[in-house]
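FAQ
Q: What does a multi-component entry look like?
A: The components come first, one per line:
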Amino acid sequence: MLAFDPSSVFLSNLLLAQEEAEAATGGLDIVTLLNQALNGVGIVGILLLTGLGLAITFGVMRIINLAHGEFIMLGAYVTFVFQDAFGMDLLMTIPFAFLVTAIIGAVVELTIIRRLYGNPLETLLATWGLSIVLQGVVKLIFTAQLKYVKAPPYLSGNLPLLSDDSGGALISISYYRMFIIVVALALLGVTMYLFYKTSWGRQIRAVTQNRDMAKCLGVNTKLVDMGTFAYGCGLAGVAGAVISALKTVAPPMGQDYLVDAWMVVVTGGVDKLIGVLAGSLLIGEANAVIAFILNDPTARVIVLAAVIVLIRYRPEGLFTIQKRS
Amino acid sequence: MANAVMGYKQSSFPTKLAAISGIALLIFIILPFVFGDFQLSLMSKLLLFGSLGISLDLVWGFTGILSFAHGVFFTLGGYASAYYLKLNLSAASNTYGGELPDFMVWNGLETLPWFIAPLKYFPIALVATVAVPALFAYILGYFIFRSKVSGVYITIITLAISSALTTFFVSQQAYTGGTNGITDVSKLSFLGSPIPPIGLYFLILAFTVFVLALSWWLTQSNLGLILRSINENEKRIAFLGYDVAQFKIFIWTLSAALAGMAGGLFVPLNQFISPVYLAVAFGTQVVIWVAIGGRGTLVGPLLAAILLGQVQNYAEKVTQDWQLVIGILLLVVVLFIPNGLMSLLPKQLSLANLSKPKLLKTPDAVKN
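Then the predicted structure of the entire assembly, as tokens:
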């Protein structure tokens, strides 16, 4: 691990540069770099998956939802329960994870969020309280013990992309990471279709643009609010179900994803749904590249600092077209 | 004439408030003689947490900036004080006998880093406990308040700061002791002899009174009026010609300095500091004390910290799920009692009412 000392950081960079120069002939360095980039693609998949739900609840509805991580956690627990009780395949549990978290999301919208519209700081506090409560309740039911979810057997193993002379894989990507990316992109596609091509999506956009006018035209704004929030929570639930096989399932697991999801949405901007893809690409790859040059914790600190600077100068996100207001 | 002025002053003095705070102070002075050792250290800790709550109330309750980073300021002060206490371990009680703290030896450091070495001296350490968090807050404040960034985004920035610093402190094991933090520190001593727990209690009590009095005075002054106006309507106060950002940066920095001092006093009491206090969870605790006690009441956060801490102490013997109780309490307060528990007190007991000066007597009455 690198020590916090400017000179040593500089020195190690120098050493790395020397190594690069030496390895350039063997081509080994490009392999490591490619592997790191692929690793980054895996992170991008997870970021996209966890950020998508938040892009709905925050991006579209402007609800500061700090309980987002807990909805991911709930989705993971749903998968655990269905797999544990009925021996279901992970893929089969995804619809249930979506339904259960969406229903919980609808209840939360009805009982808590609805009372606090137009009051972002209060919403932030209430959802933070909710996140503590959800963790506590899950801990009460399932205890704090770590739970394990099995990935389907056909998704285990790696896909070799490049082999060396003896047949060993030089560059490979695990099937599960590919699966995550496919799910994330599919969900993004479905969500975009729902938002831009269906009447429900048109109603949602109408309500966000001009609530009073939409109400006058006969849109049931309260139902739209509830439905949209529930959908965002359901997406978080799917994220939880898919992620559950990657790491252990435990009550505080959502906290790990909360900050990342926020960073993705804030970076991508909330104007267009596609921003969440841009945000996760940028953060995921930046993280992987910096981690390759320095190390993991430093990469995280640098990325977080960069996002803070970004919020300072462009709170509306990088990929938002500037409008006159 | 002089009499009249004195008469005016006497009549404007909030007698009731003075009486109540006098009684409260007396109770806190008597308490340690009734308490056992455990309660003594618990109460010292809760008073510090209360002071931390008051410092957050200055920026949140009065100025409307919700921060999850006050645990960070607290911990920065704490680390400064922990380095001082660690470096002043006598050679005999240091595991490796030498100058170097044990965690640095474990991580292969051979000399004391230049930025930690000066903390061996008390005056420097004392200044650092206040200056490091204050400077950090000033830079941060200068950066975020002089922009178009609004309330919620600032809160998200504070969340990110807390998360980033936790990762940073955990990763720099050789310099910060990593996840374990700085443990086994020496006792704070005065003129060569260690301060007993009761002495520490009174030191902390004095600090708490100082924080409360300073905050009270500040918020009653014209400055407090401006801060509250910023909370009510930032645009209007800017149109009146006030530099809103400057006021925000000032109160933010001051609040961080107070939080840092609390952290500095926390280490001699707690005997260790670790990244746990940097993390978002602790920052949330502070927010919860203020939310439950009542924003903008100053006394509310102090009482909430003491009350919740005491209840937690007993509740944890019965249940493992104290956090759940806290979460439910926070939800209930936000949804149903937005002004906190202090607002449930009868009107006559409210701070605003108590501090209201009595009506001026007629000039005749003043004359005598």
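Q: Is there any commentary attached?
A: Sometimes. For this entry: Strands of chain A lie at 158-163, 169-174.
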